[in-house]
TrEMBL record:
Keywords: ATP-binding, Nucleotide-binding, Transport. It comes from the Bacteria. This is Amino acid ABC transporter ATP-binding protein. Pfam families: ABC_tran.
Length: 237
């Protein structure tokens, strides 16, 4: 089976600073990969490269059979820590903008789809509100629905619950778990290790721009190979 996403010795610099050092990993269709690691280790940069939000300087990156961005528009969806919703638009308009502009849907079609997705993320009654009128957990579920409106084949999550109050984390993770159960290919940067145990096929650990170790949850939680990963897990578990 061809990989959904394949990084081959990916190198990236910010000026003189090498932020990614020969990062290699393959994610199969339907696989759920969790990426963890200390702050500044390059996790966001990896997912931003996959989403075609950052260029890279060395190695190769194959996303759905081509360079990032060569896949059809919207085929890679991304959810950010800070939601990144359009604050001046209603929830409904946040969801319909992309499908109308980029997928060529009529307003009616886009709205039907948006309502169905708001149902799926369990906020069917919030369509007319502006993001600022919603809780953080609700805003993040809007962001997930907005990404899903574009019918992505791969979903990227960059610390989607890190900006949320503790009581709202579960409602976002629940939606992500349902998406996982439906077969979505997912790459999730998160330190929610309960989620990782339940959902991840594999967990990757990054440190200082390198992908240090990848293993199944069972492997890494019982016997991580690298001491850096063991130390990291000791701190967060
Ligand atoms: P993580 O998500 O693991 O916390 P990032 O990928 O955000 O790490 O960042 C990795 C490193 O790259 C950090 O040292 C960060 O300061 C640096 N960095 C991130 N974005 C930029 C940028 N646009 N310009 C310069 N340095 C950056
Ligand atoms: Mg980050």
């Amino acid at each position: 089976m061809t990989a959904a996403v394949r990084l081959t010795e990916l190198d990236k610099w910010f000026g003189e600073f090498q932020v990614l050092k020969k990062v290699s990993i393959e994610v199969s269709p339907g696989e759920k990969l969790v990426i963890c690691g200390p702050s500044g280790s390059g996790k966001s940069t990896v997912v931003r490269c996959i989403a075609n939000l950052e260029p890279y300087e060395g190695g190769a990156l194959d996303v759905l059979g081509g360079e990032p961005g060569a896949a059809g528009r919207g085929e890679v969806g991304m959810v950010f820590q800070q939601f990144n919703l359009f604050p001046h638009l209603t929830v409904l308009d946040n969801l319909t903008l992309g499908p109308i502009r980029a997928l060529g849907l009529s307003r009616r079609e886009a709205e039907d789809k948006a309502h169905a997705l708001l149902e799926r993320v369990k906020i069917p009654d919030q369509a007319a509100k502006k993001p600022g009128q919603l809780s953080g957990g609700q805003q993040q579920r809007v962001a997930i629905a907005r990404a899903l409106c574009m019918e992505p084949k791969v979903m990227l999550f960059d610390e989607p619950t890190s900006a949320l109050d503790p009581e709202m984390i579960a409602e976002v993770l629940d939606v992500m778990e349902e998406l996982a159960a439906e077969g979505m290919t997912m790459i999730c940067v998160t330190h929610e290790m309960g989620f990782a145990k339940r959902v991840a096929d594999r967990i990757a650990f990054m440190d200082a721009g390198e992908l240090i170790e990848v293993g199944t949850p069972e492997q890494v939680f019982t016997a991580p190979k690298s001491s850096r990963f063991a130390d990291f897990l000791d701190k967060i578990l």
